Automatic annotation (TrEMBL):
GO terms for cellular component: cytosol. Gene3D superfamilies: Electron Transport, Fmn-binding Protein, Chain A. InterPro entries: F420H2_bilvrd_red/Heme_oxyg, Pyridox_Oxase_N, Split_barrel_FMN-bd. One of its GO terms (molecular function) is oxidoreductase activity, acting on the CH-CH group of donors. It holds the Pfam family PNPOx_N. The keyword Oxidoreductase applies. This is General stress protein 26. Keywords: Oxidoreductase. It comes from the Bacteria. Residues 24-119 form the Pyridoxamine 5'-phosphate oxidase N-terminal domain.
Length: 170
């Protein structure tokens, strides 16, 4: 992935603010364990849920059971938002990733993701039926990847800032 162009939004940033380096945003996406996934129900009502996600190859990946609300929502409308950051008001950076979720079914990518879940969260998954399953059986999980259409970073503290990262086309 080519580094996106950072654009500081001066309307929502203090005069001495600068965009966080892209490497810092990637570090946050890679290090964060929990994200908030926002989807839309068929009725148009929003649905938000906390979920672990993995940053790999320029996309955020998460998994869910096929019958869970988020999976049903994504089957209806694959557009979604994942957010992460801190609950602090005066420190840290919050990151918002907007994009479209797509099923991940390719075996090698699923194996890499399963290894990440194990290393980062000590959560075991086996790759079966183009998705994940807990060792020993049980219901499977669909795996999704969200390639960003838009990324925002909100710097909290001195100085406050809002940055949009413009992703290269294609």
């Amino acid at each position: 992935m080519v580094d996106p162009v950072a654009e500081l939004d001066e309307r929502f940033s203090e005069p001495d603010a600068a965009p966080p380096p892209w490497s810092e945003v990637v570090h946050i996406l890679s290090r964060s364990e929990m994200f908030w996934l926002s989807t839309v129900r068929r009725t148009g009502q929003p649905h938000v849920t906390p979920i672990p996600a993995m940053w790999l190859d320029g996309a955020l990946h998460f998994c869910t059971g096929a019958e869970e609300q988020k999976a049903r929502n994504l089957a209806f409308d694959a557009r979604c938002v994942l957010t992460t950051g801190t609950s602090d008001f005066r420190s840290g950076i919050d990151v918002v990733v907007e994009g479209t979720a797509a099923r991940v079914t390719e075996g090698e990518l699923l194996l890499r993701l399963a290894a990440m879940w194990k290393a980062k969260l000590d959560w075991d998954f086996e790759v079966v039926n183009e998705g994940f399953q807990h060792p020993g059986g049980g219901a499977g999980a669909l795996v999704f990847g969200v390639t960003p259409d838009k990324i925002l970073a909100f710097g909290k503290g001195q100085p406050y800032s809002q940055t949009r990262y413009r992703l290269p086309a294609g």
